[in-house]
């Protein structure tokens, strides 16, 4: 079993899409083993996206990620990282495949409804960024 970090981003929270997105995740066999709603501070958003600091879209990304609450969760599944990225679709919704979350729900490259970790190293860092070990609730098969 592998773990990944999912964020339902401000544009999706604001449009009442939390339930629809969680429903898709559970239908696709992801187990939600931790979850919280957070209104990120500027410092939290900058720290989370530290690898993008200096890129042209960074300031807009931080402004957007702090514009409304997000729903952060830890998902567990075989190959969770790759499978969740496939379910999300490409960053740019115009390039995302049919049936992906971003094709269905995203508004733009920035307002793209969901985030998922891109590697095991990122998943470990991102999960620890939001959750203490005691907040993660692994379940029996
Ligand atoms: P996410 O998967 O959360 O990781 C980094 C985020 O930066 C990405 O989703 C997008 O929301 C945003 N992003 C990445 N590339 C661009 C871009 N070229 N223009 C605007 N936003 C971008």
UniProtKB/TrEMBL annotation:
> Which domain of life does the UniProt lineage start with?
Bacteria
Q: Which GO terms describe its cellular component?
A: cytoplasm
Essential cofactor(s): Mg(2+)
The protein's Enzyme Commission number:
2.7.4.6
Among SUPFAM superfamilies, the record links this protein to: Nucleoside diphosphate kinase, NDK
Q: Where does ATP bind?
A: 9, 57, 85, 91, 102, 112
Q: Which GO terms describe its biological process?
A: CTP biosynthetic process; GTP biosynthetic process; UTP biosynthetic process
**Family that this chain belongs to:** Belongs to the NDK family.
- NCBIfam families linked to this entry: PRK00668.1
Task: Report the protein name in the record.
Answer: Nucleoside diphosphate kinase
**Species of provenance:** Avibacterium volantium (Pasteurella volantium)
Gene name, Swiss-Prot/TrEMBL? ndk
